[in-house]
Amino acid sequence: SQTIHQWPATLVQPVGSPLSLECTVEGTSNPNLYWYRQAAGRGLQLLFYSVGIGQISSEVPQNLSASRPQDRQFILSSKKLLLSDSGFYLCAWIWGRGETQYFGPGTRLLVL
Amino acid sequence: GQNIDQPTEMTATEGAIVQINCTYQTSGFNGLFWYQQHAGEAPTFLSYNVLDGLEEKGRFSSFLSRSKGYSYLLLKELQMKDSASYLCAVRTGGYQKVTFGTGTKLQVIP
């Protein structure tokens, strides 16, 4: 069966510090991978998606970046966090033309 | 770009039926998802529609009209545990990009 992992579960970081969030998927190959952010009480904002190793599509120009160094690994990074980066970060995957998008447990980030 | 609209909040009574609407304006439509999200948790998949018509899964049904850019999620025999946010998401662009609406917060009252 397929499993998606995210870590850490919770993170508190000072403004201006770097960020690295990791997402890994088990039990599937060549998935489409997604990073979303959800601000408190708001909907999901698509940040990045990837259809393969090294292939990243950016949806929102900002101080975040994403990388896909391996087929089942998706990393979200920042060199300098802003207060507005606080939120609930969710990784998700779909296999090809699959009919279900699966979400990881999420990372709750608070920037102070 | 995509424009996906849902009502912000709804209230319904336990045991009743509620319909949550979603309208969208997109190019390259390739399917519509519905998710349930309880506070503080990740979304969980409810349904997927790619063709026009009604898909039924137990107490939950989802309808799609591609020509009208319209979908709804129907919840029957409401239970208190159905209090959650319901998210509509549209897939476009060669089965790659999935974009969410703002979500509808449903409160079920006794």
What does this structure look like?
The complex is a heterodimer of chains A (112) and B (110). Chain A is mostly beta strands and 112 residues long. Chain A has no helices and eleven strands. In chain A, strands 2, 4, 5, 6, 9, 10 and 11 form a seven-stranded mixed sheet that branches. In chain A, strands 1-3-8-7 form a four-stranded antiparallel sheet, with no helix packed on it. In chain A, strand 7 and strand 8 (73-78) form a beta hairpin. In chain B, 35% of the residues are buried. The N and C termini of chain B lie far apart (41 Å). Helix content of chain B is 0%, strand content 61%. In chain B, a hairpin with a 4-residue loop joins strand 7 and strand 8. The radius of gyration of chain B is 13 Å and the shape is globular. With 110 residues, chain B is mainly β. The mean pLDDT of chain B is 93. In chain B, the strands form two sheets. In chain B, strands 2, 4, 5, 9, 10 and 11 form a six-stranded mixed sheet that branches. In chain B, strands 1-3-8-7-6 form a five-stranded antiparallel sheet, with no helix packed on it. Classes of the chains: A mainly beta (112), B mainly beta (110). The A-B interface holds A 32, 34, 36, 42-46, 49, 51, 57, 59, 90, 92, 94, 96-97, 99-106 and B 31, 33, 41-45, 48, 50, 87, 89, 95-103.
Largest sheet of chain A: 7 strands, mixed
Low-confidence stretches of chain B: none
- The low-confidence parts of chain A are none
Average pLDDT of chain A works out at 91
End-to-end distance of chain B = 41 Å
The amount of helix of chain B comes to under 10%
Radius of gyration of chain B: 13 Å
With helices defined by DSSP (H or I, 4 residues minimum), what is the helix count of chain A? 0
Rg estimate of chain A, integer Å: 13 Å
Q: What is the H/E order of chain A?
A: EEEEEEEEEEE
Outline of chain A, from the CA principal axes?
globular
Write down the overall geometry of chain B: globular
Q: Which percent band covers the strand fraction of chain B?
A: over 45%
Quote the distance from N terminus to C terminus of chain A.
Answer: 38 Å
Order of helices and strands of chain B: EEEEEEEEEEE
Please describe the biggest sheet of chain B, giving its number of strands, its sense, and whether it closes into a barrel.
Answer: 6 strands, mixed
Assembly type of the chains comes to heterodimer
How many extended strands of chain B? 11
